[in-house]
Amino acid sequence: MTEMTMQMSSEVLSEVRGQVGFITLNRPRALNALSLGMVRDLMATLLAWKDDARVLAVAIRGSNKEGPFGAFCAGGDIRFLHQAGSQGNPLLEDFFTEEYALNHLIHNYGKPYIAFMDGIVMGGGMGISQGAALRVVTERTKMAMPETAIGLFPDVGGGYFLSRCPGRVGEWLALTGDTIGAGDAIAFGLADGCLPLDAQATVWDALGAQTFADGAAVKAFVASKTVAADEKLAGVRGQIDQYFSLGSVAAITAALDAADSEWARSTAATLRKRSPLMLHVVLEQIRRARGMGLADDLRMERDMVRHCFFLRAGQSETVEGIRALAVDKDHAPQWNPARIEDVTPEMVAPFFASPWPVHAHPLAALR
Q1: In a domain, 107, yes or no
Q2: Is 124 a catalytic residue?
Q3: Is 262 a catalytic residue?
Q4: CATH of the domain at 276
Q5: Distance from chain centroid for Cα 350
Q6: Is 340 contained in some domain?
Q7: Residue among 147, 171, 297, 317 flagged as catalytic
Q8: pTM reported for the whole predicted model
Q9: Catalytic residue status for 110
Q10: 5 in a domain, yes or no?
Q11: DSSP strand E in the chain: where?
């Protein structure tokens, strides 16, 4: 028997069909970028289904202008972040606190949560998919944590999941913001299998029409439909580990500058465009997070994001980065400091000092 249940806002569509809860992110004009309202709808839906015996598993997808699939989620709503960050709007604090709590819930959800990661999966889209029991990519998946391009850092648990990629892949992805496809996402431990594009709708619909013994059977059904995908970056893995294992951002960029490979030159050029300060912050973040559990990593990132927006008065790299990329679109951010070599440890350290006592931290309850 099929039963339609709750329909939250028009930007987050949710229903129960058969034994599965289905969520569709429905903000296609913004590539399903997450607003505070969407974060709240997702949290409310998942909490409602957590103890609902009818729901054995949850499936989530995105939509594009033509219909379902095509784009998963491009991240957080950066125009909102710019406006709120420029004006000191307290809703910005709520956004990050609630988004990170949602990320934590997904990683610790008691039922299989299956993410159909078609198209663009970036930033906040990684936050609502990396904790999934099954992370399914397609031939057109474009995955990245591109935050250093806007003077931010890979948040939403990025320290946790990037630091657990093989070798020094985490440092490379976090610092450059480079985009990877399905095969590399699987090889790097950021996806579990590739579902062919023409199978997505069939599998999605079958989940609501079949009878399953338990949540594990739902997950196994989807996993059985996945196929192998080609790695594109196997040939440069050695270079990634060689350069991104070095002790500092200055050492990494100097070594890349001195190398004679096309990959190294283009990687050095990418790093030179990023916020020098945030490159140093991000390297420290990834290396700290490697020894942290998820809850501690999210608390650290909450401290960091507070510093990015509120504690560098008039000097927010993030507000400037978003301005240059998405508001004025001049692609000429005025980073401060302007050079990687001019960043000092004294500039980096405050990002890792919590503005809250332990008992009053906004994410104190996460375990």
Answers
A1: yes
A2: yes
A3: no
A4: 3.90.226.10
A5: 24
A6: yes
A7: 147
A8: 0.96
A9: no
A10: no
A11: 12-17, 20-25, 57-61, 63-64, 67-68, 113-117, 120-122, 134-137, 142-144, 193-194
The domain total for the chain is 1
State both tokens at 68.
Answer: 């379902």
The per-residue pLDDT string of the chain (367 residues; one tens digit each, 9 = 90 and over) reads 334 444 456 999 999 999 999 999 999 999 999 999 999 999 999 999 999 999 999 999 999 999 999 999 999 998 899 899 888 899 999 999 999 999 999 999 999 999 999 999 999 999 999 999 999 999 999 999 999 999 999 999 999 999 999 999 999 999 999 999 999 999 999 999 999 999 999 999 999 999 999 999 999 999 999 999 999 999 999 999 999 999 999 999 999 999 999 999 999 999 999 999 999 999 999 999 999 999 999 999 999 999 998 866 568 899 999 999 989 999 999 999 999 999 999 999 999 999 999 999 999 999 9
CA 131 to CA 127: how far, in whole Å? 7
Beta bridge partners of 60: 23, 115
* Catalytic annotation present for 75: no
**Catalytic choice (21, 76, 123, 157):** 76
Q: Which one of 85, 119, 124, 158 is the catalytic residue?
A: 124
Domain that holds residue 36: 12-360
Closest residue by Cα to residue 103 from 88, 83, 124 = 124
